[in-house]
Amino acid sequence: MSRYLRVRMVLDRLVAAVGLVVLSPVIGVLGWLVHRHDGGPAFITVERVGRHGRPMRMWKLRSMRAESADGRATGVSLTSAGDDRITPIGAKLRAGHLDELPQLFNVARGEMTLLGPRPEAPEYVDATDDDWRAVLAAPPGIAGPTQLAVGDWERDIITAAPDGSAYERDVVPVKVAIDRWYVEQASPGIDALVVVGLARRLAGRPVGAL
Asked: Is residue 135 within 8 Å of residue 107, measured between CB atoms?
């Protein structure tokens, strides 16, 4: 991992710790709304692969039906457009990516960063592959460049084949290539472009012309 990413990882932990204090009332209210909707748990953790291939539990506000003992939905780890497991309040949280706010806790713990490769589910990671090893040299991020490059295409692929077969075959190799490029080339300038692009995407504006 580059010196820039190592320094930014430390800064991200500080920013996340402050963010948790500032946003804790917002996260608390959102959690209350999630629980109030169906009586299930407000927060869940999902298994993801972290830095150096270590397993980690990523925190989220629950956006799907609580179908298992730990509050998570059953079925595949991928979420397609119109997935009937998503609750009404969950759809609103996902629209603004508010369900990701608890991941600030993962960042404060040093398991994630604010910006980086999105963490993948274990079944889609090949830790023996050179590209994957390069990606896993850095901690995963709450947001990352693949969301800009393949977000809509990824959603369409998953919706067409929700069993994950097309995602694993077609999407994962592209995401890994982009993430490897990011980990090896990350700089303040590249991060600024990614942040602007993500902000434009969240606002519903085209991201092509940064």
From this structure: no
Measured between alpha carbons, how far is 118 from 89 in angstroms, rounded to an integer? 23
What are the residue ranges of helices labelled H in the chain?
A: 3-38, 88-95, 103-108, 130-135, 146-149, 151-160, 165-166, 172-185, 188-202
Kindly give the pairing relationship between strand 43-49 and strand 113-115: unpaired
Written as tens digits, the pLDDT of the chain (210 aa) is 899 999 999 999 999 999 999 999 999 999 999 999 999 999 999 999 999 999 999 999 999 999 988 888 888 888 887 889 999 999 999 999 999 999 999 999 999 999 999 999 999 999 999 999 999 999 999 999 999 889 889 989 999 998 899 999 999 999 999 999 999 999 999 999 999 999 988 877 544 433
Q: How far apart are CA 74 and CA 175, in angstroms?
A: 25
- For the question of whether the overall pTM of this predicted structure is more than 0.85, the answer is yes
